[in-house]
Amino acid sequence: MKAPGRSAVVGEAIAAFMGAVLLVSAALLLGSIGPPAARALPTDSASDSAAPAATAALRSASDVKAVSSYTLSASLDTDLHVIKGEGTIRFVNTSQKALDRLFVHLYLNAFEHEHTVFRRERSLGFRGHDRVDEPGDIRVKQFRWREQAAELWSANAHSPGDPNDRTDIEVLLPRPLAPNETMTIEMAFESKLPSVALRTGFAGSFHMAGQWFPKIAKLEPDGTFAHFPFQRFSEFYADFGDYDVTIDVPQSFTVGATGSLVEERHEAERRVVRYAQRSVHDFAFTAWDGFEERTASAGNVSLRCLFPRGQGRAAAIELDAAVRGLAFFGERYGEYPYETLTIVHPPDAAAEAGGMEYPTLITTGGSYAQSLAPGRVLEGLTLHELGHQWFYGIVASNENASAMLDEGLTTYATAEAIVALYGEDGLVDIDPFPVSIAAVERARQVGYFSHQAVAASAGEFVSGADYGALVYGRSATIYRTLDLVFDGVFRDALADFARAHRFGHPTPNDLVAAVRARGGDVPAAALARAIFDKGWLDAQPLGLWSRAMADGKGYQGEVVIARHGDLSLPLVVEMTDTEGKSQRKTLDAGNGAVKVAYEGAAPIAYVVVDPDRAVLLDEDKRNDALGNQPAGFAWRTWLTSSLTTAALFHATSP
Q1: Does residue 646 sit in helix, strand or coil?
Q2: How far is CA 322 from each of CA 336, 387, 506, rounded to the nearest angstrom?
Q3: For the segment 613-639, what is each residue's pLDDT rounded down to a tens digit?
Q4: Can you say whether residue 168 is alpha, beta or left, with left for phi > 0 and alpha for psi between -120 and 50 degrees?
Q5: What's the burial of 52, exposed, middle or buried (CB within 10 Å: 0-12/13-18/19+)?
Q6: 255 with 207: CB under 8 angstroms?
Q7: How many C-beta neighbours within 10 Å does residue 233 have?
Q8: How many CA atoms lie within 13 A of 547 on its CB side?
Q9: How confident is the model at residue 208 (pLDDT cuts 50, 70, 90)?
């Protein structure tokens, strides 16, 4: 087993409090106003966290078959916040059957009135405003099958079975599209951006255009489409394709977008830019007349950070984190396959546009005060959004059906990166109260296991609190528990998974298979139980006794350990005698009560289950210790305060 860092010894209580409170107020209480210092890598990070070497050549972006490719022109009216768009979609039927229909997402229609699927749901403990000050929508002017000279769009189209929602549109074809046949769709549309709501919109003259064009739903191999309305807790899912997008904005505006800038010109007081990128599944752009810009490079990748005036410190921190992160994630999960990465730091008024990922473009966020905080808030946020370039970006899993393959894997990967790049307690490394991100994740998910399966689809979560606790916190805690109990098995399995399913649209079962290939049936079964079946466990000592042996040469006895729940993991039991000497025994994975034999030179003083705190999924750490007499360390007091402060964390965090 891998021993936890020193933050685990300090206790989950400090982690919860610091994670929920300190990072919010640290800039005011403890901030430094000097320039961001260069941070050296820990000398042992490579040996402790390096992924296994790839055994097969990675699939490259040039090998990816384009399914839905877009050539678009977009003109942004920065006063009306309207994008006038036109262009073509080249769609290939890569499935095994002829298609008699398409499904097209119009995600901005989620913001057109209060009766849409998105607006009917409430955030209830998660990001996203429950109101939209100014509505947004997409109006399709043309959607024409060029080769058939047939207009496909119905003016009254709405999401199947829901006349109040227009985010998931069925488009009937005048004749079937055969397997391997290609069609060209000519389209024209107007997209009205809402006031910044969830990930997209405008605030003043700042514009973040996400999900701004009609987008064909993901075509599955069996000829069905993975289509769904825009739901509050769902992100997206699409086929890979090639994008070529020309954008024109007022002359004074700076544009950042998916892909590489291939052309720029000026026409009649307008700035015209063209961006192109192969083998991606989305395209987003931002435009603002308040951006400043900094650049950097990481190997063959050109980085660009767009940020508000006065946020140069934040930009430097984010670029530094991205450079380090590209190296770490690339070594661990396979080389970043694109030539550019754009980081967008929205202004404070557009905070809801922050914390989001698109292919080759991520958004961060945070006030100037957060760049002064001693905790690595900006580094963590940047690394998290960068991690999404792999999960779900490069592996392209279904974020609607399996958010745990998106946010869960990225949360785990973010913590791995922070440990490798900044040390075990890299979230807040302030003596005597360091905090690790793993401890915060555990505190966040305690008590939620019974609410919903971690692998549930986005629409099944009843609240944002459940979604956040289970998809982010519990997912990552499950993965890290497998690492600690099975000596890095999940770390290595995830590296295999990312490489094997590069550009591949994997499912949770593929992740379980990767764990089985690395660690065997026991960790694979534990993962499956934990994510699919609300698996849980709580281990505790129920009793202990010892007595002198008949020959007077020592003591013998036993302890009784109860293993509640249906999640089976190996468990370490540590028995300490009255002279302070300890011995350990490991229980095989199992459930129910079990007796553990004791033999030693002195009577048992106390017993502790999971002394290294490897089983982070243990639901109640207050009952991990039991003693016959006072010992030198107040285990039960510490564990009780831990859970109490974890409860405070739940009460004060989203």
Answers
A1: helix
A2: 12, 10, 26
A3: 999 999 998 899 999 854 444 444 344
A4: beta
A5: middle
A6: no
A7: 28
A8: 1
A9: very high
Residue (of 508, 567, 509, 501) closest to 536 by Cα position: 567
The pTM of this model reads 0.87
368 DSSP 8-state letter: G
**Measured distance CA(322)–CA(315) in Å, rounded:** 10
pLDDT greater at residue 173 or residue 18: 173
pLDDT, tens digit, 9 for 90 and up, residues 65-110: 999 999 999 999 999 999 999 999 999 999 999 999 999 999 999 9
φ and ψ of 346, to 5 deg: -65, 160
CA distance 196 to 174: 38
Q: Are 642 and 618 in contact (CB under 8 A)?
A: no
**How is residue 24 written in tokens?**
């919010």
Give yes or no for residue 418 having a pLDDT over 60: yes
Residue 429, Cβ neighbours under 10 Å: how many? Answer: 17
Q: Helix axis angle, 312-333 relative to 489-500, nearest 10°?
A: 90
CA distance 341 to 359: 8
The domains located in the chain, with CATH, are: 1-63+296-535 (1.10.390.10), 537-652 (2.60.40.10)
Torsion over CA of 352, 356, 358 and 361, rounded to 10 degrees?
Answer: 90
